[in-house]
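User: Can you fold this complex?
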Amino acid sequence: MRWPERVMGGPLAVATGAVLLTAMLGAVLLWAGGYDPLAAARAAALGAFGTRDALLSITLVRSVPLILTGLAIAVAFRAGVWNVGAEGQLYAGAVAAVWVGLEGGSLPALLLVPAVLGAAGVAGALWALAPALMKLRLGVGEVITTLLMNFVAIYLAAYMVHGPLQEPRGVFPQTGPIAEGARLPVLVPGTRLHVGVVLALVAAAGLSWLFRRTRIGFQMRAVGASSDAARIAGRIDTRKVVLIAFLGSGALAGLAGGVQVAGVTYALYEGLSPGWGYTAIAVALLAALNPIGVLATAVLFGALEAGAAAMQRDAGVPAVWAVAAQSLVILAVLALDRVRHRAGSEASGV
Amino acid sequence: MTRVLARLSGVVRRFGSVEALAGADLEVLEGEVHAVLGENGAGKTTLLGILGGILRPNEGTVEIDGTPVTLSSPGDAWARGVGLVHQHFMLVPALSVLENLALGRRSTPGRLSRTHAHVRSDASRLMERTGLDVPLDVRVESLSVGQKQRVEILRALLRDPRILVLDEPTAALAPAEVASLFALLRDLAAEGRAVVLVAHKIDEVLAVADRVTVLRRGRTTLTELRASVDATSLVRAIVGGEAADRVSVWSPGQATAPRRARGQEVAALVDARARDASGRVGVDGVSLAVGRGEILGIAGVDGNGQRELALLLAGRLTPDTGSARIPDGVGFIPQDRTLEGLIGEFDLTENVALALHADARFGGRSLLRWRDIRTEADRVRVRFGIVAPGIDTRGGALSGGNQQRLVVGRELLVATDLLVAENPTRGLDVSATAFVHGELRQVTDAVTGPGVVLISSDLDEVLALSDRVLVLSRGRVHEIAEGVRTREGVGALMLGGADAVA
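Assistant: Here's the predicted assembly.
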């Protein structure tokens, strides 16, 4: 029950170490590739944090879907549900959000925005329901089913923007803009930062509270830590908890799609997500599945994306270097976390 | 002069800040059965791990055949003829028994099927010689605990070790199996091999060992010939001088508990049937009733429906047919405390919360009252003498005995009507065993107390504690009449029914 200390002593140290390790490795790679690591780092830092606009309009805006999908992964993984389908659940949410946003133009914003976001959450949860039922009824492993459901959702979205939901002129493979009343208000005037970021913060705080204070949160942690002990010692209905984790995770990922549509793009198109549902796994693991930690790691990955664009623009370094850097972060986390665990089990393995 | 096969001197092994071994010595002679005794956490498993090449010492030397060696892997140890049988199973659940046995073999050139054929014939011969009977073509995951242990022992013997090291080999075996295992160990020793075993039951050690080494807090406190020790002197060496007077030595096989008055009925099964995880019939038509303030002992060899009966009585399983009347206030001590009794990464408070979180007193419908749960956790820690820095200590950081104190203490909190204990002292040392037995007796002292069901493969334990004894064999129960409540009588009934199952 002493989360701060646990996070400080372990996961936070791992995260910091991973970032430092990645910075060193990245510098060596850039140098080997004939680029000036310092110039590239400067460009990336300025592009991510250097100006008000860089921080608010680029880095934070990109962090919002990462926070929500990162929380989606944290909910699932905490309960031992290996949902790797956040990407598909995000698209399901985006499709539902766009549909409500296009059809509901007559409603006042006070009703329409909640309807859009609610539809996104429900759609994401429903998208996760299929793998959940397959796991609980038939014993099919969710890693495969959730992953495959991603492709179904991505192509469903593609079909929608080429077919039923295509913009009225039928020229571009995208939907028309959603109603004004369906859009999330801008939070800081003069920037693109929308109120979705508040929603993400509230979701993180809510989840943190859920895990610490509520019965279902405790049950999820118990099932994730040891399904057998949860069932035998805790008399917990593990199937019910697993189902709730699936649905909650899917709803959060769906919400990420809805927030992106209602807050940033106002429309649906192919490639809406650059793989947030997958990056979210790294975001959540780097945060040791701690919801508050997800806020920090999501911003880190948001900044990496923002910095990558700036690096390409201002230092002539191809953006693929940033993708490589992201991968390095993940590898470093895995390696350092392993080291930490080994030290831990040595200490208690009498 | 007898040859020294292995000698460990001044061995120190630290895990983080914990010193598991603080200068332990062990000498293994050709042709001897050497028992290692000590409390949970005394360092026995660590010492054997060093001899078996799993752990490396921080200080001290390991000599084999008089030459100092560095054993950096189990393979190194095997190459020098040291074979280790683990306390915890190191088997691949998804593979068959035969495949698991083949895993332990140096790969012979040629086809896998030929290796398997070799292993099959070797194993069959070995099983015949040792009486360690297991079906070869069944997946390990569907075996009972006792059967898995037999597979572990078989696997080690197949490699023909010069020094056979066994960590608690008898914990899951029936008395007759223990006897045949001991006969086998004596045979192995007679062939000039050395057998080193960790055991908890002093009578077993006295029955089989040539020499005894006692560890206490990581140091060797005694190494003596069997002839020059007795139960009292061993207990004294194990628990230390002053503590020995407080541990009432439980003398197995002699005293049987007197029957006490039985209170109001609290739980009952009527013609209950239940299948095990693999769909085979576990409990096959059992009717029984449990009254307040009594200990109902259920003896039997593992794998005869014990698991399903325990789960039924604990309300963790509903019968397929028949009925079960189980009260609300039921506590359950599952046999595998590390897997089912507690969660290693949860701290003491959270582990106590496992049993309390559904109770309205510790939370509303949705929120948990952590302050109240912490108070309870601290009471459990103090009252049951759990050695831990505080209630923030992780369950996985406790020694086996302290983990069981935690589980027992927690379940006693909720067992207002019924307590189901499934092999509650397996793998525990003398003082932890005495603690568990004392708690089971104490909670049933009053006729208004909870009823206790003690399901155990340790016949002596059942006989010593129970007011009534049933034998569970092939999924059915047989009541033992007062007159035939002897070790031999019950043991025969246990095995008579068990033959067809194993």
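Residues 193 and 432 of chain B are 33 Å apart (CA to CA). The radius of gyration of chain B is 23 Å.
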